TrEMBL record, chain A:
Component of the translation initiation factor 2B (eIF2B) complex which is a heterodecamer of two sets of five different subunits: alpha, beta, gamma, delta and epsilon. Subunits alpha, beta and delta comprise a regulatory subcomplex and subunits epsilon and gamma comprise a catalytic subcomplex. Within the complex, the hexameric regulatory complex resides at the center, with the two heterodimeric catalytic subcomplexes bound on opposite sides. Residues 21-50 are annotated as: Disordered. The gene is LOC110688027. Belongs to the eIF-2B alpha/beta/delta subunits family. It is found in: Cytoplasm, Cytosol. Keywords: Cytoplasm, Initiation factor, Protein biosynthesis. Pfam families: IF-2B (PF01008). It comes from the Eukaryota. This is Translation initiation factor eIF2B subunit alpha. GO terms for cellular component: cytosol; eukaryotic translation initiation factor 2B complex. It comes from Chenopodium quinoa (Quinoa).
UniProtKB/TrEMBL annotation, chain B:
It comes from Chenopodium quinoa (Quinoa). The keyword Protein biosynthesis applies. SUPFAM superfamilies: NagB/RpiA/CoA transferase-like. This is Translation initiation factor eIF2B subunit beta. The lineage of its organism: Eukaryota, Viridiplantae, Streptophyta, Embryophyta, Tracheophyta. Component of the translation initiation factor 2B (eIF2B) complex which is a heterodecamer of two sets of five different subunits: alpha, beta, gamma, delta and epsilon. Subunits alpha, beta and delta comprise a regulatory subcomplex and subunits epsilon and gamma comprise a catalytic subcomplex. Within the complex, the hexameric regulatory complex resides at the center, with the two heterodimeric catalytic subcomplexes bound on opposite sides.
UniProtKB/TrEMBL annotation, chain C:
It comes from the Eukaryota. It holds the Pfam family W2. InterPro entries: ARM-type_fold, eIF-2B_epsilon_N, eIF2B_epsilon, LbH_EIF2B3/5, NTP_transferase_dom, Nucleotide-diphossugar_trans, Trimer_LpxA-like_sf, W2_domain. The gene is LOC110701088. This is Translation initiation factor eIF2B subunit epsilon. GO terms for molecular function: guanyl-nucleotide exchange factor activity; translation initiation factor activity; translation initiation factor binding.
Amino acid sequence: MWYRSPSFILDNQAQEKLLLQQQQHQQNDDVLNPPPPPSMSETSVLNPNPNPNISAYYQTRAAHHAVVTSDWLAQAQAAVAGGVSGEVTAAEVEDGCEVEKGGSVIEEFNSWRKQPDLAEAVAAIRALASVIRSSNATTMMELEIELKKASDSLKSWDATSISLTAACDLFMRYVTRTSALEYEDFNSARSRLIERAEKFGEISYKARRIISMLSQDFIFDGCTILVHGFSRVVFEVLKTAAQNKKLFRVFCTEGRPDRTGLRFSNEMAKLDVPVKLLIDSAVAYSMDEVDMVFVGADGVVESGGIINMMGTYQIALVAHSLNKPVYVAAESYKFARLYPLDQKDMAPALRPIDFGVPVPSKVEIEKSARDYTPPQYLTLLFTDLGVLTPSVVSDELIQLYL
Amino acid sequence: MPDTQTLVNDFVNKLKKRKIEGSQATARHTAELLRSVISQQRIPYTNQAGALINAIKAVGEQLIAANPVELAVGNIIRRVLHIIREEDLSLTTAAIAAAVAAAARSTLRPPSLQTLLEDVPDATAVPHTSSSGGDSEGRSKSADKNSRSRKLKHDVIEAVNELIQDIATCHEHIAEQAVEHIHQNEVILTLGRSRTVMEFLCAAKEKKRSFRVFVAEGAPRYQGHVLAKELMARDLQTTVITDSAVFAMISRVNMVIVGAHAIMANGGVIAPVGLNMVALAAQRHAVPFVVVAGSHKLCPLYPHNPEVLLNELKSPSDLLDFGEFSDCLDIGCGTGEPLLHVVNPAFDYVPPNLVSLFITDTGGHNPSYMYRLIADYYSADDLVIKRKSTAGN
Amino acid sequence: MVQRRPSKTAEDADDLTHVPLQAILLADSFATKFRPITLERPKVLLPLVGIPMIDYSLAWLESAGVEEVFVFCCAHSKQVINHLAKSQWLKHPNMAVTTIESHNSVSAGDAMRVIYERNVIHGDFVLVTGDTISNMSLAEALQEHKDRRKKDNNAVMTMVIKKSKPSAITHQSRLGTDELFMAINPDTNQLLFYEDRANPITLEKSLLTANSSVSLHNDMQDCYIDICAPEVLSLFTDNFDYQHLRRDFLKGLLVDEITDYKIYTHEIHSNYAARVENFRSYDTISKDIMQRWTYPLVPDIQSFGSSVMKLGRQGMYSASDIGLSSNAQIGPFTLIGKGTTIGSNSKVSNSIIGEGCKIGSNVSIEGSYIWNNVTVEDGCKLKHAVVCDGVVMKARTVLEPGVILSFKVVIGEDIVVPAYSKVSLYEQPTFQDSDEELEYTDSSSGMAEISSINALTGLSDGELVSKAAEASEVGANGAGYIWSVCEGREEEWRHSVAPISEDRFAEILQAAAEGVDLPHIDNPQHSEELVAPSVDPENLTEDNIDEFEKEVEATFQRAVQENIKDDNVILEVNSLRLSYNMAATDCAGALFYSVMKLAVETPHSSNNELYKNVAKVITTWKKLLKYYLASIDEEIEVILKFEEICSESAKELSPLFSQILHFLYSLEIIQEEAILAWESEKQGADEVDRVFLKQAESFIEWLKNASEEESEEEE
């Protein structure tokens, strides 16, 4: 009976917790002073936790990539409802006392995030690096504690963002691995830490380029690629391929409810790549024409599977049954310490879905924003560490955290 | 130098004319050629490894271009490069603290999360580790360097000799494991003729296992017939079947054992034509599909890599007699489009999910484990062999 | 010249002195089949699937283990030598390539004599021309040759042959040459007879008696790869009217009764060997290479340094750096060279495109060979054409099948170049040897022209173009002359690049059915004749009878004109009968017809005169007619024939039917039994057929009465 299914129970528990949180945070509303976003649109800045049922992460994604550009408008498309808000700055605060520190991290984080091209995780890493730089600690322990606090605040800003969590975790591990015993002098150790943090930031930033270079070999002339939604890494891959004068065409799913696919197809069209837009349900229909499926990932889990936008699992299933390869482009900082056993075994990330008509209140809506694709449906993962099979990923992660 | 150039040209010629057959022979020749290149290469005092690497890469590019389908050539070149880097590292690390040494050693492995976090600043300095390692110590002794240079070459040549030895004896090591896999009263299926498989089977026979062998003839070269004769000479009960009969017979078979032309990084196999069919039939009937291959056949590239030519189309004269069909090929009348096209591919690609087990000279492995072996044998910098050594591609 | 005899024991010869395997490569074909292209470049440097032909030959020789090659150049020798120098063949480590230059050789025979004088050949050598493509291994053939030499010093040459069936309809081989007929002794592989013309073949009886078994082949192709003993060179010097390798030398040796030189054959099966002789072979061999019959001499392996060729699906070869627009349709079996760009909506199929070409949009290229640096602008259509380096085709031009565009020609806009024509910047040489078969004489005059053109090449391109610019044969802004199809070249379509077109094919089929191509037998000979297998097996068809009758008529007319004696005419008609496999009755009928025709054709003004003519003619040829009317059946046949004549061909005779019948009876050419039998036969016939019966009724009545009388008398 579905009442008793673990996922249902978990769902309910999560709901209750969120409601509690919401009540709590109502009190802290007025403390906030988020800097006004320098963007064009003037819609209301979303409150810190305006709707506990909405994953801020996906809100951000929607905001970034469902942005209706002027030329799209010029093609007489109705403006995307509600999603247009230049920069969402949902600064959130953990506890009132640590407002400043936490605030500054978040501020840093947000300032990095103003560039839509920048991955959230990279922004977080850079923010944490700047924390080290600006910290007043005098011993390694102090520094570590500071960093931990900052990392926790970032993580809790959006509990649903896996890459953010993973990046923060990796960074922390990074720091703890540095043997402070090497350097007796704290300052030199700190400067070394800063160096390495920046290096890490650099690598993560460049990860996309490395991945796009690695995947060039897999795109051959005359192939058809299916993409899901808007993944910046995949976009980079395809952009590089188009610049290298490869002949290929792209099938792009709509990616409801964000409709990020529309934006993607627009970008592809600008690059003169033949692109075809599919509704999400048309994937199986068109799968026989497709040569490969290319998706990004929000997180790569220990089993070698991925967590990505809702719909990825479906596409991978169809591709697998028709023997089409599924390639995932994911940067290495997205490797997370999670092992979901089924679809509901993750922190829920919900977002509003607009059906265009009002839905009666008695009707439930599945609002989850992401799903988990098991490793047996994936062929290869393109990461900045190289091209790996899913089993290699799990090997790597186990080694790392051992 | 001119001497090596003639040797290289000679070898390139042979490769182009497809005169050398078989991965083992090609691998051995390549290794011997590279050994002579190394021994004749004059290396400067600084950055010796770099000079050697460049020389090998220059030769390697030519060799690979001569016969892109013969992956063993590329494999051996990359092995030698890895050997050079390793030996170089072990020489320099003899004088450096262990921690950094360990760090430096792991740079040879493909970048992983671990290494990412450990050696980030060192990563960019890897190609210069050999020289900078010496310099940063500040304890360079010129005499020391001199002896080091000689030692590097010496070590490398020794290691290459070992490699050649390994290539030559890979069959024995594989055959030793036969007893663990072949038991009493089994029926084994194979296709075509692979020397590795033959030695494998003969070793099991010598250990007094009784089993029967089905040999699929392996059109169009019908090497299966030759294998059947050889097996018969060793008192093994053999049955010869056509390739098309494999599906019909496979239900009576306990195990399929085949050789391979090359094993790719994802665990896929490039095998003589017809083996994909056998693998599918084996999967259908839940028969284990075992691939035996020496370690010189392990290739660090993926099958989708454009540098990898999965197949070579040979002359159609193996299939059809030109004289008999010359009037069908007659293009003089009609629209000019050839009505009869004869394709004679030499290889098949077997995806990793169809293979149950790989038996190499290091033991038996899962297909998903192959990347580990590859990481042991090859360095990441050498995946693309280009004349200018590029750091970290 | 002292010949080194191979010593008795093989081991000694090999151990003591390793004789390097030598080869002679004739880099001049001494033919004009590839004009106008060969006016500017030697044939052996023409690209075949992007690679000059001589490179194929040299690569093959090297892989076959040849150690010394002598390249004989005559026409455009400088170009050949430059090419060899640039391409490193001269510095090859395993194979020593030496060039031998000559400026006044006009044939292969001359070339052999020059080489003999140079005294460089010691031992058996391989003789090839520079346009041979092969991947065979010479070891076996060489071994056979050497073994034979040891046993018999007169075994001077071993030819390589390959099975390749000619087309049964056009009687042409795949390579566009005529059907080749060979007689080989299957036990010893000795070549006994060689003939490459489609005329009736004559075999000597001695051939059959001297050999225990003879097998006759018309399904073999001469690969023009010969392993020769050193005697061959001296043979050429001894007989210096030997010009052509096959026509003179080979046939000369075969029929030579004084010296007993023998030629042997070696058949190859799974290997490939062919020679590019004309445009049709160029087309066929290119397609064979694309189909990989010549593995490993295939484009993706034999990249001679410059670019790497990749083989894609369906036989599509593409080099690096090509620019294909996204909606260009590149069909199967095409090769696209380095740096070529193809515009949108263009269709390319079954073609070979060289390096650096610019193909515009909406271009359709089918079955064509485009060499390097060619510009084809938008909207052009090429079909089965050969386009050489540097050609510019302006917009919307159409090349019909079989067109050859020579170097640097410019075709103006909207021009349609007619089929099978050749366009060149040089004017067509005005001399034309009527007998095209005498290649050497043709090329000798060609030589003179070539040297004058060599002088011309000193001019800059601009000047040359301006000279040709006035010729607006190829349109405004065009440059080039169209070489018209002249006599001796009507059979162009046989050798052309284009496949034989549908209507031509239908024509040939039609002709074959009617037997138009049947050879004309002029002189019946007494010896046995073996007729070439070109006659339709069904001999009793209507057409054959007509044919036969025509022949008989012709014979008869000649007999009349030349006053040949009856006996001779009888002989002739007999032989005709044998050849057409006719019955005697047919002969009679035919002859009678001829006789009547003669009579009718003699001028006459009235029926009476006609009758007199007929009577005269019949009297003159009475003996002839009588000879053939040996039995009643024949006579009946004649009467029937006569009826036919009267009703159809010579209507004037109809009223005279019974009179003539009577006359025939009186001359005892026709017996009364025949007439009576004819009458009874006709009883059951229709009215129409009985017209003449009626006419002759009275005569028949009289006959019956006469016969009664006779029979009464006899009693």
